[in-house]
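Exercise 7.
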Amino acid sequence: MGFLRKLHKWLGLIVGLQVVLWSISGLIFAWLDHHQVSAEHSVREPERTVLPRAPALVEPANWLSTSGEGEILEIRLATLLDQWVWRVQTTIGVSLRSVATGEPLVLNENLVRELAQRRYVGDGRVSSIEFHPTTTLETRDAAATWEARFDDERQTTLYFAADDGRLVEARNSTWRVFDFFWMLHTMDYRGRDNFNNPLVITVGFAALWLSLSGLLLLLRSFRREDFAFLTRWAAGG
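Solution. The predicted structure, written as tokens, is:
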């Protein structure tokens, strides 16, 4: 029982610290404004672009045989800023092609800057444009993206998919505070979103063991004389 008490004490200290972190992070979640966390007030819906009704098209049949982009799932006309493009979705991914030439259209810094300025709401200006070839902590599983960072007080950052220019995520300083405490809450210090990671499962089992061992220690702490008043009460005295 001495070893059990010592183990219960030290394990209780470790699990107790995590319980405190769970409580603090839960309080932060309730305190932060979810509208600010999502940065929804910093992003506007894309405006409808007025384009020629009959653009000069190079039909997909003219370049499909040389695309080498995997099995075609969908080809449709789309808009990118002020121009028509072919949006091609294959088993490999998504790509854009010029409707006028059929040539692949790749996003560059100038296009991303224009996209960011059109989607942003606020008094800041684009301070930097950066390409990320792989997913980042702020975009999670969004693959390759372009990052457009603004110099406003909330450090608003817009992320656009590198394949077709769609807005992937909008982040700001409030979200980054939220995400830090979200990491502490999920105990996923790498990906942030995995509730089934081994660490949180281990702490969960440790908390269960603490409850059971604590109940056992509580029962063992009582002596027969502690219940003497029940005997007297049953005897009517």
